[in-house]
Structures are given as C-alpha cells and as structure tokens.
Amino acid sequence: MSKNSKSSGTTDVKLKSQYNTAIFAGGCFWCMVEPFDTVKGVKRVISGYTGGHVPNPTYQEVCSGTTGHTEAVEITYDPKEISYEELLNYYWQVTDPTDAMGQFQDRGDNYRPVIFYNSDEQKLVAEKSKQELEESGKFDQPIVTKIEPAAPFYPAEEYHQDFYKKNPLRYAMEEAGGRAQFIKKHWQK
C-alpha cells in the first residue's frame, strides 16, 4: 500500500496517535499532493475538501461553489522527522501567496490559498512563518494566504487520490498552468 492510499480504521488510529496532521489549500488538490508526497517525514497525503458548510460534499458540489469548501490536502507527518515549520516552508514554495482568488489556472474561492491550523501551536507557527515571508521582500505584493482554524476534512473521491501517479498526462497539463514557472521565478536561483 502506498503511503497515500486509504487505509483501514486501525491504521488510521495508529497514524493519529504517532503522527501529526497539517491541512493546506493551494489550488487544485491534484497539484498539491506531489510536492509533499516525497518529503522525508511525510507519511500520507490525502486530497479532500474543508472549510465548508455541507457535510460529506462531492467533487461536483464543491466545484459548484455552493458548499463553501476549499480543495485541500491533509498531510500526515512524523514530527520526529519533519516539523510543522518545515512543512510550511514547502507550502510557501508551491503556492502563490499573493493570489487570494485562486492559484495559477485554478480560479475561484474553492482554490484559494489557506493554511488550516489544528492547534494553537500550529496557528502561532503559521502566523510567524507568514510574517517572515512578508518581511523577506521575496514578493512585491502583499501575502494574502489566509490562516484559519481547521474544519472537518472530507477525503475526496478515490479517483482524486494520488492523481499525479494515476493520470500523469492530465497532471502534466494541470501543472502547465504556471506553477512551475512561478516556483522557478521566486524560489530557484
């Protein structure tokens, strides 16, 4: 079983007791899995929906813009191997923190950039990380990524999980929407 495939309830309980979770939104969830999937210390990345007012939404419902949900990824990680702060550093590098109306070719509220915190500690670390990015001068526009309390996270349908592995051509088309160029411009020297 890959680290991203859905597991049994027993395994989920073990993961929750041993590991922590981070929830990040940054455009289409298809494009948010791969950047975290190979990071040392990350055990699982699940595509899903959060922040809305409809329980157990479907992809079609979320895409309609009527549920209030944002496409996001839930990252299960081992805090002994990687810190929440380090995950945030990866997050900033794979999103456009200056675009509140979506990400790259993905437009609309359900694609907005958000860090959903699970604890007061995560909130403080996220706020500090955002402030450091603002003060870095790396961007000439304001950092508009929201920091919000975590809401229920609903895993997306199975065909959305590990999309970059299952549908590499379609994934490549999605990634051609500007994310790679943005990363190169702002993060690679």
> Which value, in Å, is the CA radius of gyration?
16 Å
Instruction: Please state roughly what percent of the residues sit in beta strands, choosing from under 5%, 5-15%, 15-25%, 25-35%, 35-45% or over 45%.
Output: 15-25%
Structural class: alpha+beta
Strand tally is 8
Helix content: 25-40%
List the total number of helices.
8
Strand order of the largest sheet: 7-6-1-3-2-8
User: What ranges have pLDDT less than 50 throughout 5 or more consecutive residues?
Assistant: 1-9
* Average pLDDT over all residues: 87
What separation lies between the terminal Cα atoms?
37 Å
Order of helices and strands: HEHEHEHEEEHEEHHH
Shape designation:
globular
Biggest sheet architecture: 6 strands, mixed
Explain how this protein is built.
It is a single chain. By secondary structure, the protein is an alpha+beta fold. Helix 4 crosses helix 5. The N terminus is likely disordered. 38% of the residues lie in helices and 20% in strands. It has a 6-stranded mixed β-sheet with strand order 7-6-1-3-2-8.
Condensed summary:
The protein is α+β, with helices and mostly antiparallel strands and 189 residues long. It has helices at residues 9-18, 30-37, 59-63, 84-94, 120-136, 163-166, 168-175, 179-187; strands spanning 20-25, 42-50, 70-77, 102-103, 106-107, 114-117, 146-149, 153-155.
